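Hey, quick one: can you model this chain's 3D structure?
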Amino acid sequence: MRLCWFVGKRWFRSTLPVTAVALAVAFGSSTPASTQSLTPLYHWAYPGNGDQFYTTSSSSPGSGWNYIEVTGYVYTSQVDGTVPLYQFSTAGDHFYSLSSSTPPGYNYEGPCCYVFSSQIVGTVPLFRYFSCCGGVAVSHYYTTTQGGPGYPWTVYEGVEGYVSAP
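Sure thing. Here's the predicted structure for all 166 residues.
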């Protein structure tokens, strides 16, 4: 299906499919994000300390990690309209943020992937939660399910970005 529109006294017809035209208009580009490959964002958990790890690699991050799910679909390189989702770590916690500012006590590990900073058609929110065990251990959890997984991730911190639904 092609898109046609009328401007002034003249009809115009696109050479791109409607979905590509819509994305190109939304991002102001002739290379819409839909032409780029999405990749799974894998969720791994380390039961020894509750750490949650998210990566675009299907390989285990190391010994003792358990595969949980594909949280959503993201980009491995920046495309129009996306921003980096930065990864930080500390003993027992991985933290992901659209901000490149390193939180106190964390180490900067670079971009994990690329996501949208605002919702567009075909994306869902990536919610951020955390748990705190007696004020000592903190673990962050990211999900596309509003309301989160429940205990122990009881504190909702907001939407961190937007990803394609799993």
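One thing worth noting: The chain has a mean pLDDT of 81.
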